[in-house]
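User: Can you recover a sequence for this backbone? Please restate the input before giving your answer.

Assistant: Of course. Working from this structure:
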């Protein structure tokens, strides 16, 4: 028996041996352990829920915010209020899209969301 034949692969194919078989590349959580996949899935559900609550809150208070702008002069506190509302929505939507949808240019998307985070959430 030569040295090369001792390390040559056996006749069993990767499809027959589950330890050698690769996970399905179209299943995103297949490459993680079961515990980590469960935690990531729950985190994604929480992020989608938070985004839904933010959108709901903006829709419910749309009339109040419209009256605020219409009845009062637009001053610095009102500008900061609206920037924070829309920046929060942009950050949440960006994070949900990055975590749940297949994106062709994910590095660019992460940089854009990071810009919003660094400029509008300095305490993070």
């Amino acid at each position: 028996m030569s040295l090369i034949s001792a390390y040559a692969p056996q006749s069993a194919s990767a499809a027959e041996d589950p330890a050698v078989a690769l996970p399905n590349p179209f299943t995103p959580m297949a490459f993680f352990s079961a515990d980590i996949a469960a935690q990531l899935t729950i985190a994604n559900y929480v992020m989608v829920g938070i985004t839904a609550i933010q959108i709901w809150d903006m829709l419910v208070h749309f009339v109040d915010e419209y009256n605020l702008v219409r009845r009062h002069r637009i001053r610095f506190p009102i500008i900061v209020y609206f920037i924070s509302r829309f920046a929060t929505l942009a950050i949440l939507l960006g994070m949900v899209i990055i975590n749940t949808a297949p994106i062709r240019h994910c590095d660019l998307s992460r940089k854009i969301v990071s810009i919003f985070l660094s400029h509008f959430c300095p305490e993070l």
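That completes the design. The two ends are 62 Å apart (CA to CA).
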